[in-house]
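Dear colleagues,

As part of the handover before I leave the project, I'm documenting each prediction I ran so the next person doesn't have to rerun anything. This entry is a single chain, and its sequence is reproduced below.
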Amino acid sequence: MWDYSDKVKEHFFSPRNSGAMDDANAVGDVGSLNCGDALRLMLKVDPDTETIVDARFQTFGCGSAIASSSALTEIIKGMTLDAALKVSNQDIADYLDGLPPEKMHCSVMGREALQAAVANYRGEEWKDDHEEGALICKCFAIDAVLIEETVRANNLSSVEDVINYTKAGGGCSSCHEGIEEILTKVLAERGEAFTPHAVELKEEAKPAKMNNLQRIKRIEMILDSIRPQLQRDHGDIELVDVDGKTIYVNMIGACSGCQMEAQTLQGIQTRLIEDLGEFVKVVPSRAGSYSRAACHV
């Protein structure tokens, strides 16, 4: 288990400013359910002063993603847009009394959502899709620009740092060479030499081998951490059965038959793979249609 500060736990279990904002005039969407994290940041901006009057968020992600989003909204309320744009991912982490290194990418996602929302308000184009050839990590759809910016902003110096701050390279090792090329370039700008080394899971991060009962309890605990996000939109999830690598679940309430049900299940599957440290498949226990509005955030 990660070592979370009391403030991270506080903002996870009792997130501030969570939910939709009907009168938002600035919206930023980042991430992807297929990658396990997605965030929508909504702002109400005073047009006369460009001051952020209110901020709310909806997110699908781990506890650190929820806490980081909650912290971001608290930080930027009352700021002008220009002042808010100076908020860094490290400011978000510091507000929470720190994040585990492996979860720093959650604060980076918050910063991206803020940039996207401000661009949306000002009628500027902001997009997280990638021009051909710019994509470095296909597993998590991370491009070279984001990696370079994050390396510079946080003085990163290793592939492991990049994985922790962006998730790039965390799915497989096929993009590590591309990440090393970026590190070589950026470190040279700082007058430093990049020294490559093999990236391995830290011993304390490797999941302990569990028996079947422990594994089922762990799955239930992970689903419990996801459940509040679904319940806020009158949905829910229940564990039905675990058969080897296949996990059968029921989507309940507004999430049953939602047109985004398949994407929501994909996001849940990604979370389970990450937390269990093994490949699993999440399958609905009954056939369903996908006709309703999205309920995943």
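Residues 1 and 205 are 8 Å apart (CA to CA). The beta strands are 26-32, 37-46, 51-60, 135-137, 142-143, 235-243, 246-253, 281-284.

All the best with the project,
I.
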